[in-house]
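Hi there,

I know you've been waiting on this one. I reran it after we fixed the sequence typo, so this is the corrected version. Both the input and the resulting structure follow.
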Amino acid sequence: MNLPQLLLAVSLSSLFCAVALLTLSAVLYWRDRRLGARLAQLGGRGPVARPGGAGLKHASGRLAQMIETLSRLSAPDRALHQSSLRLRLAAAGWRGERAPLLFYAARTACTLALPLIAALLLSSFAASQPPAVLALAVATLAVSGYMAPEVWLRVRTQRRREQIRAALPDMVDLLLVCVESGLALDAAINRVAREIAARSPALAEEFHLAALEIRAGARRVDALHNLAARCGVDEVNSLVAMLVQSERFGTGLGDALRVQADFMRVRRTQRAEELAAKVPLKVLFPLILLIFPSLLVVILGPAMIRLPQILGGQ
């Protein structure tokens, strides 16, 4: 078997796997639908939902079943309900009951689709490659597709935390103004969540959720701890610890917020100075590898062209 035939066999195998997975999803969907209808006829109630599909009641049936099936190829049932995964998704701003299902479904889809798309688009180039290189490329693309949602989640989480960290000193200043004007802490948190929305939607969303938890009947300490757990930022942890200690020991909230605002403002200035100090080191390698060779060519190029003429004339 030559290389074009081997590439065609690999492409057909990938296409067969994709079609088989889609067929399996359709079979599972229709089986569960018939079973649910039968149970509804026998028991006089609606279809029984599967354990992993509780958050899919607002989605369309076929798409929900396909997403659930794809997610189960990457994770078992118990992984869909892990609080650590939901906390990581919440830190990235991705909440809801369907968030773990969509995450694992995206992981499965990327793992299967990336090698298939590459095989279809680069078939002419891959025909001239040895089988070992093709197998390594397929494995690399599959692993890259499997890790792509995880990388996206980390990047999005880090970007969101940076936005929260940058807007936190301004939020503490607003909270200090609200507290010193006579508002209670709950009303101040709710007001600040509305005012800071234009500056930082992520921080406004987190404080709005904390205000909703307090309004729903949760203890203020629990709501603040949940806020710190969702954000995952050190400055938010120190702010929550200060608010909890101030409520527990009865100290003045205005003075504590003023000290906290000054501390966060100093931390923001120090962070900016640290980033500015790293700029020369980051610029050094592009300067040496890209800019200096161009300057040498521009400066010494004419002299090197005229050098043989000068030496020949002598």
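Quick highlight: The chain has eleven helices and no strands.

Best,
R. S.
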